[in-house]
Amino acid sequence: MDEQPIVPFRAGTRPASRNLNEQGGTFAPATRAPELVHFDRRELMAILNVYGRMVAAGEWRDYAIDGLKDAAFFSVFRRASEVPLYRIEKRPRLRQRQGAYAVVTGTGLVLKRGHDLAQVLKVFETRRFQIVG
Asked: What is the average pLDDT value for the chain, to the nearest integer?
């Protein structure tokens, strides 16, 4: 095997790029990045309104937002080092079935699922969590 030194191209001496169609080949179709699911402005305002009330009450302290190709998550934490207390999920694929929105506990229990985010977020109304005894 002949060892040839690596020589950089000089300006204007770079080989011309070849068109694959001239050689009988075809170009690969352009691939797009997968579309990610996110909360829109109206949804995020409703979620942050509930989050603000719960922070003011001292219940929640931190949050995280995740956007995946099939779902978006808004997770709330009591402390940043813990697992999430609740996850507010948006799954557009379930829009025609149970509803695109759900509130899930940290253990995976679905508290409420529905088509309207405002109705789903009513799970967090403080009047619903009354201490009995």
From this structure: 81
